[in-house]
Every structure is written in C-alpha cells, then in structure tokens.
Task: structure prediction
Amino acid sequence: MELSELLARHGVAPVVLEPAPPPPAQRAAFDRVAAMPPRACSICGAMSVTARAVTLVGAGPRWVDMCRDHALAVRRPFRGPVTLAGLAADLRAAAQEAGIAHLAFYSSFEVAAACRQRTGPAMTAPVPPVSEPDTSARTCPSDQVGPCGTCARPTHKYGSGARSPLCEYCDARAVANWGRPLRAS
Result:
C-alpha cells in the first residue's frame, strides 16, 4: 500500500504533519527516531519506530512517524532474484550495462547452485562428543538443562524457550527424516 493511501484511509490530513527537509533526509530521520521521548505514530498514536521525510501532494515535504505495523504496511515487497541463477543473470546484465561485458562469470557459479540444491550445504560441522553440551544449554539457566531424549547430551529441555526434548543434532536428524512440520517449534 502507498503511504498516501494509508494516510487517507486513517483520515490523516497531510497538512497536520510536521514540515520536513526535502527527501532524502536519512540522517535527520535517524535523529528523529532516536529522540527522547519517542514520537507517536502519525496514524494511530502508538510509539513510532521509524520516520520518513516524504513529499505529499499539496503539502510539500512532511514527516511521517510510524509504528511497526504501519511501517510494514507501506513497505514494498522484495522484487529481486531469489535464486542463485537469477542473481547470476542480474549480475551479468549489470556488467553488460556498465560496459564491462568482457567480465565473465565462471560456470562453477551455476554448478555450485545446482549442487547445493541436490545435496544441501557442502560442509557440515562434525558432531561433538555426547559429553559436550548443546549450544542451547550454554545460554539457559542451569535449572532448565536436561538430557536429550535420544543421546542424553545436556540440552535446554525445560522451561520457557525450550523447543524440544532433543539436542540440536538429534533434532536436525529428526527433521531430515520426518520434516519440519512434525517438529515442535
């Protein structure tokens, strides 16, 4: 959704917003968000987490302070490539556009992408001995550490934040065998 549409939907007239320097005013926006006390969202009045200096029709440059939900509502979706092959095609087009068409990308780029899709990550860390605690056990209170349900490795098993009675290594094997939907999250 466009910012002007969001303001119109909530009945916020552009002329009531504070005047701003002409965009881009990134440094001023950072200072505005960091100011104490925090400013209110221009749309709903909640605490703002972002500010934009935008030029609105009939009002000129204005500050629009937004809470998280309203900032996400006007955020444009990512439209870039989502695969390595798409990224390689975009890089080739950009190199050609910049006049450096003699720059070549090695075919290993695509081979690596295809290999990764077939086999998963190329390198995996070796599983430490069972006597070594799980990384989750190192960051939780000691009263929430218990044995893994499969290998008995010390893991974050009890209390808030515990995902599963399995350590990260046994959990990864279970996900590989049964898939993520069957795991507790």
User: Anything to note?
Assistant: The chain has a mean pLDDT of 78.
